[in-house]
Amino acid sequence: MNYLLKTTLSESYSLIPADDIAAGITKLKTIGNIDLLIVDADFETQESVDLIQFLSNSSLYSKPVILLLTDQKIIKKFDQDILPHYFLKPFDPVKLIAAANKILQQQALTYVA
Fold this sequence. Notes:
Layout: H1 2-9, H2 21-31, E1 37-40, H3 46-57, E2 65-69, E3 85-88, H4 93-112
Parallel strand pairs: 1-2, 2-3
Helix pairs in contact: 1-4
InterPro entries: CheY-like_superfamily (IPR011006)
Protein name: Response regulatory domain-containing protein
């Protein structure tokens, strides 16, 4: 999935990939200034649930998150305010880029206002 995301988004955005949830959490803690998180979530594992709980309880809570999911049922486990953006796999890369652009534009407008 990292390859698909790199191929899809690297022309427009600077990406910081992580091979797994633990590596992702470590990078989030050390990097700091991240505008958008795209998470390929496998909710069969406790790690993914832990990641969502970490995001909702951290200073990154105000950062938008796009989840890539295999099963829509998982959305029911979380408040829509925490996870308003998601794509079911397989997803359309063009729609993912459009969603990322829209989210980042809204984020920029929030900073300016």
